[in-house]
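Explain this record to help learners:
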Amino acid sequence: MRQAQIYYKKTVAGILTESDEGYTFAYLPDYLKTKEPKPVSLTLPLQEATYKSSVLFPFFDGLIPEGWLLDVAIRNTDISILDRMSLLLLCCKDCIGAISVVPIEDKEE
C-alpha cells in the first residue's frame, strides 16, 4: 500500500491511498473543519465519506507531467509509464498550482 498527503496550498487536505483494491481519497476531518476549506478538485467535492476508484482518479492523473518532462522522469528512473501512482509520487511534490503530492514513507520495523 502506498499513500500520499495531498496539500492544498500549504495545508494537508487529505490522503490518497493505493492498495490492491484500487485507490481511495479522503479529506482529513481537521481540514474539513477549517474556516473555509476548498476542494482539491471540482471532481472531488468536500465530503466526509471516502472516495473510491479502481483507477487513479483523473484529477491526480492529470497532475502527472506529459511530453518531454515525462520522458525525462521515465528515462532517469525504472518507473513504467503505466505505474501512474509512482509517477505521481515522483513528479508532483511541487506542481504548478495549489496542489502538492507528498509521499508518506512506509516505516519498516
